[in-house]
Specification:
Order of helices and strands: HHEEEEEEEEEEHHHH
Pfam family, one: Cupin_1
Shape: globular
Subcellular location: Secreted, Extracellular space, Apoplast
Mean pLDDT: 83
GO molecular function, one term: manganese ion binding
Disulfide bonds: 45-62
Number of strands: 10
Structural class: alpha+beta
Strand order of the largest sheet: 1-2-9-4-7
CATH class of the domain at 65-78 and 89-193: Mainly Beta
Bound molecules: 2-acetamido-2-deoxy-beta-D-glucopyranose
CATH superfamily of the domain at 65-78 and 89-193: Jelly Rolls
Binding site for Mn(2+): 124, 126, 131, 170
Length: 257
């Protein structure tokens, strides 16, 4: 990985490619994870926030199985389109264990992805699961980036399916003037999602300019511009007080105390 990163830093000048290079080094840490969630040890383990039964298997606390009703095992609303009125013109609605408690310990989840005209499901990866993705309406340009920075891309039409391997960066762009729609399945109750641009420019607190200006080989005004375009966070929150020197001083104090 290290060698690949160095090559990428030398070869690439455009900012977008640097985004890939940096995120790839994050992604490599996740590749050691299991290919899917552990096998369930019981029929179901409907998640509860209140651990009154105090049983935890390999996910969240379980509702006492004696109290589980059919309603606990049913999720409604998957037919409702996501709101695509946003900067990307697309919305991925992930029905994972956080939305559907019955998925707890079962190792599966699903998503619906709605695209407005020319909408983009932005460049992202799922650290804990592979994905199988089916186009039900529309025509999408899709791409996958491998750990050696090779791009696999193609155009998918209604009825086509593709796989996005665990941890690899991928995206889908609607090529049509009309809405598009896809569904995706995952081998995890909680596949997770890291958007590449948010992972760099939308973190809280911010990744310090010292890091980003060096990584991208640009000055801090461009970094600030990228932040303002891509951050989902409240940019007006003042984090200018943070600096490497300050952090350095703090850790030095920790050592001497
Ligand atoms: C889309 O969102 C913007 C602001 O977020 C709002 O002004 C506009 O009315 C919305 N358009 C539709 C069609 O909902
Ligand atoms: C962003 O933070 C500022 C200052 O804390 C606050 O006044 C503003 O309402 C926040 N905006 C949003 C959209 O949360
Ligand atoms: C932001 O924080 C820094 C350091 O704490 C301070 O010097 C500066 O005045 C603050 N800026 C704003 C706009 O509040």
């Amino acid at each position: 990985m290290e060698k690949n990163n160095m090559n990428a830093i030398r070869l690439n000048t455009a900012g977008l490619w640097m985004v890939f290079a940096i995120i790839m080094s994050f992604i490599s840490h996740f590749e050691v994870a299991d290919a899917s969630d552990p096998s369930p040890l019981q029929d179901f383990c409907v998640a509860v926030d209140d651990p009154y039964s105090a049983v935890i298997v390999n996910g969240r606390f379980c509702k006492n199985p004696k109290d589980v009703k059919i309603e606990d095992l049913v999720y409604k609303g998957f037919n409702i389109p996501g709101d695509t009125n946003n900067t990307q013109g697309a919305e991925a609605t992930l029905v994972d264990v956080n939305r559907f408690s019955a998925l707890n310990t079962l190792g599966v989840s699903m998503a619906r992805i709605d695209f407005g005209p020319f909408g983009l499901n932005t460049i992202h990866s799922h650290p804990r699961s592979s994905e199988i993705f089916a186009v039900l309406e529309g025509t999408l340009y899709v791409g996958i980036v491998t750990t050696d920075y090779k791009l696999y891309d193609t155009v998918l039409r209604k009825g086509d399916m593709i796989v996005f391997p665990q941890g690899l960066i991928h995206f889908q762009l609607n090529l049509g003037k009309t809405n598009a729609f896809a569904i995706a399945s995952f081998g995890s109750q909680n596949p997770g999602r890291i958007n590449v641009v948010d992972g760099l420019f939308g973190t809280m607190p911010r990744i310090l300019d010292d890091v980003l200006t060096k990584a991208f080989q640009v000055d801090d005004t461009l970094i600030e511009r990228l932040r303002s375009q891509f951050s989902r966070q409240n940019l007006s929150i003042n984090t200018t007080g943070r600096s490497i020197l300050q952090l350095f001083a703090q850790t030095t104090n920790d050592c001497t105390n």
